[in-house]
Specification:
alpha+beta, Double-stranded beta-helix, 2 domains, 9 helices, 27% helix, globular
Length: 335
């Protein structure tokens, strides 16, 4: 039987502006250590929203994958509706999202545009970059409280809309995102997951899905800002990248974009405010090889900062959660 966390683990190091860290002595057997401490580690995630375990010494994809599966309690979630390609290492174990190293990935909650999304994210560092590349974390309830009330009220009332134009040049193709080249299977998935879709004459696919911007945490009932409104919006892109994409694909054909739930554009000022609030509530800790970070995906947003040099972070998703029903704005949205 697993012992209570205080008796088996050291105290986590918690400092302002830094990701909470659990320093441990390197175990003789990583898998056995994970198995013995899974309950305690999950308790730390519940307490802090995210925890970085330092000293575990994960090496190689096989060892990291075994640790992630142990923490997940078995099978890991499959990455569906991905906006960019990931390399699959093992069943449910993926590379970080393919995203230019010189471009940041701003704060977001993984798959918050899907009806089924992970309750926990797990990141295993095999190779730390020479500089940068931090996976920042941000408390979603604190972000919600810091946002302008009028902005929150509108997004709560209307939800947010994700529009996607799948092509074979930018981001994941529709076959890669949905894991099949069968149009019928894609259409069936979209209908089951409240996604409007339209095939284009050139074979491309366009989709629209409306989701809640604020949800209550299933364990605590705390209201959380839970979405990817800023990250997948055109105004978060570097200006030269946005200009190129608009020139090539047009305003309505961008690979991805976000809007208010009624279809109105989200202004550059709104996106700037969101990113400024995220930045004010970001905690960081540079990666070291062998680190393992666990993140409550509902309570805590995460990001990825620009970096130099090779960077290898393996990703696992677990604890699947669902918006209730298939309505365009979930009934779980805070009222």
């Amino acid at each position: 039987m697993t012992s209570p966390a205080p008796a088996t683990l050291p105290e986590a190091t918690v400092q302002p502006g830094r990701t909470p860290i659990l320093p441990i002595d390197p175990p003789d057997d990583t898998s056995s250590w994970i198995a013995a401490h899974t309950t305690a580690l999950r308790s730390l995630v519940a307490t802090h929203g995210a925890i970085l375990i330092r000293g575990l010494g994960l090496r190689g994809a096989d060892q990291a994958a075994a640790a992630l599966r142990e923490l997940a309690g078995g099978a890991l979630m499959r990455d569906t509706e991905a906006f960019a390609v990931r390399e699959a290492y093992r069943d449910g174990v993926y590379s970080s999202t393919a995203w230019p190293p010189n471009q940041p990935m701003c704060m977001h909650h993984e798959l918050s545009y899907a009806l089924t999304f992970p309750g926990m994210m797990m990141f295993a560092c095999l190779t730390a970059p020479a500089s940068g590349g931090v996976t920042g974390v941000s408390d979603a309830s604190a972000v919600l409280e810091a946002l302008p009330a009028a902005m929150v009220e509108r997004f709560e009332r209307e939800g947010w809309l994700l529009t996607r134009s799948y092509n074979d040049e930018i981001g994941a193709s529709w076959a890669e995102a949905f894991g099949t080249g069968d149009r019928g299977a894609v259409e069936e998935y979209c209908r089951a997951n409240a996604i409007d879709f339209a095939w284009q004459s050139d074979g491309a696919l366009r989709t629209r899905q409306r989701r809640s911007a604020v949800v209550r945490h299933p364990a605590t009932g705390v209201r959380c800002w839970f979405n990817q409104i800023a990250f997948l919006n055109e105004w978060t892109l570097a200006p030269e990248v946005r200009e190129y994409l608009v020139d090539v694909y047009g305003e309505d054909g961008l690979p991805f974009n976000t809007r208010y739930g009624n279809g109105d554009p989200v202004g550059e000022d709104v996106v700037a405010t969101l990113n400024e609030v995220y930045e004010a509530h970001t905690a960081r800790e540079p990666w070291q090889p062998g680190d393992l970070m666990l993140v409550d995906n509902i309570r805590t947003a995460h990001s990825r900062e620009p970096y130099d040099g090779p960077r290898e972070i393996l990703v696992g998703m677990s604890d699947p959660q669902q918006f209730s029903g298939t309505s365009s704005v979930s009934a779980e949205a805070a009222r």
